[in-house]
Amino acid sequence: MGLQLFTIRDAMEKDPIGSLKAVKGLGYEDLEIYGYNEKEGSYYGYKAKELKNILDDIGLTVSSGHYGFSEYFEKSDDALKKYVDQCIEGAHALNKSYITWPWLHPEYRTIENFKILADKLNRIGEQVTNADLGFAYHNHGFEFEEQNGQLGYDIIVNQTDSNLVKLQLDLYWAKHSSKSTPAELIAKEPERFVMWHIKDMDKITRDYSELGNGSIDYVSMLSTLDHTGLKFYYLEQGGNFAKDSMQSITDSALYFKKNLKKYL
């Protein structure tokens, strides 16, 4: 059972080790992390190798990480290449399987920029693949917003090399913003969808929600989706907590273990 640590970013800022121990105690086994400091080679204030030792002692693995690639969208190719090398070094230190592009700043979300993005993804994917790691793109909702009959997501999928750029499907955002269902999206290239984000949708506001409290029928979804390419999945909730982030990952873990884990 995986967790995207961004869910508890407030707790991680205050007490990283205590928070990680609590995560393990709730039954989470694997993590997707964020917040790499490439200048210091650190995560959450710990050097990457030091964090690896901490995680080993607690009994947690890290399979993917979200990195700040969008900050380099307008920087030189050399600057981006250097940053990717730094991310690779950090990923290797934690024995990760994937490096993931998680976000595109709003000012870049035009059709022409999605084409530029696709080229960048291919180049990063080649660099990461040559380092014996996988590379993936994580969607939000903006990729599914139509612009003159075109979707950014289609450009990303169709103009990138499927051997170099895998896909991390955020099931919440696909339900929230795409006219295609998650099943339809996956069916086009099942082996390419190597990771999923699993989070629920508030029944009224359509904001994030704890698993089991929202409007997404995950029992039906997870029992029928094509799992061919799936390597890792992560429970996540970006905000809108009923009480606080730690209680939310507690509630979501309990619901997931009771109702959904058997489908994965």
From TrEMBL:
<dbReference type="GO" id="GO:0016853">
    <property type="term" value="F:isomerase activity"/>
</dbReference>
<keyword id="KW-0413">Isomerase</keyword>
<dbReference type="InterPro" id="IPR050312">
    <property type="entry name" value="IolE/XylAMocC-like"/>
</dbReference>
<dbReference type="Pfam" id="PF01261">
    <property type="entry name" value="AP_endonuc_2"/>
</dbReference>
<protein>
    <submittedName>
        <fullName>Sugar phosphate isomerase/epimerase</fullName>
    </submittedName>
</protein>
<feature type="domain" description="Xylose isomerase-like TIM barrel">
    <location>
        <begin position="21"/>
        <end position="230"/>
    </location>
</feature>
<dbReference type="InterPro" id="IPR036237">
    <property type="entry name" value="Xyl_isomerase-like_sf"/>
</dbReference>
<dbReference type="InterPro" id="IPR013022">
    <property type="entry name" value="Xyl_isomerase-like_TIM-brl"/>
</dbReference>
